Amino acid sequence: MEPQPAYNHVHQETVQRVNEIMPGEEELFDLAELFKVFGDSTRIRILYVLFESDMCVCGIAELLGMTQSAISHQLAVLKKAKLVRYRREGKTIFYSLSDDHVRTILDQGMEHIEE
Amino acid sequence: MEPQPAYNHVHQETVQRVNEIMPGEEELFDLAELFKVFGDSTRIRILYVLFESDMCVCGIAELLGMTQSAISHQLAVLKKAKLVRYRREGKTIFYSLSDDHVRTILDQGMEHIEE
DNA sequence: CTTTCATATGAGCAACTGTTCATATGTATT
DNA sequence: AATACATATGAACAGTTGCTCATATGAAAG
């Protein structure tokens, strides 16, 4: 038997309900990792650019007035989170959004800050 | 006249469309700040607890197996982002969710990581 | 007013993050 | 093969973050 915590301040019923809906450790970790990706304005700006058009790395860099290296590093983060896809065309690599959750999440965030 | 960047890799038309939809500097900053708040699994766990019930600080601490101080610090972050409200009842302070965007944002994030 | 319980807060520290700089990889052209 | 262009990547550095520990604030009870 595991040692049971005391729960002096919480009803046992509430403890159970919370345990039922609380995501598992790995899901929580992944969820936090995902939102960390949205937690940087450079990455958000890249996503807004890709809303309008697929674009190559140096195109994004030009548009945002940042170095190719900085953009490439951030694209690697977005890629790892599966928020963007890419395809190669000759020397150039074009990045694009990978799904619609990106837009929904950013829209909801925007709604929240605009109250 | 501002010096105009070259835009060798991006069509002028795309530049204009992006400039139209790109949020302003302050909005971008606030949006990133908001998502940073969601980018920590302790804070996410607190939010999941509050989905089920309003709760005092030491109740949350008990439920999550963390110190009162750690939870209090994180509640301050959530409070600053206006994701939680609080009310005092005697010595105790009860925290609760402040609006529905929290749930929508977390749900969308969960949908994304579960593909 | 002193004690007790609940909560908040500041300093400190280890871990992490975003940019820059230098350099490597990869593709096409000559 | 040599060059040029597009992109990726590793090291380094300053700035930030989340926890702990000690302490402060605030409200109720004795």
Features:
alpha+beta; DNA-binding; homodimer; 6 helices; 115 residues
Question: Could you characterize the architecture of this molecule?
Answer:
The structure is a homodimer of 115-residue chains. With 115 residues, the first copy, chain A, is of the alpha+beta class. Helix content of chain A is 61%, strand content 12%. Chain A is built from 6 helices and 3 strands; from the N terminus they run αααβααββα. Chain A has helices at residues 12-21, 25-38, 41-52, 57-64, 68-80, 101-113, and strands at 55-56, 84-89, 92-97. A 3-stranded antiparallel sheet of chain A has the order 1-3-2. In chain A, β2 (84-89) and β3 form a beta hairpin. The longest helix of chain A has 14 residues, at 25-38. The model of chain A has no long low-confidence stretch (mean pLDDT 94). The interface between A and B is large, with 55 and 55 residues.
Short description:
Two copies of one chain form a homodimer. With 115 residues, chain A is of the alpha+beta class. Chain A has helices at residues 12-21, 25-38, 41-52, 57-64, 68-80, 101-113; strands spanning 55-56, 84-89, 92-97.
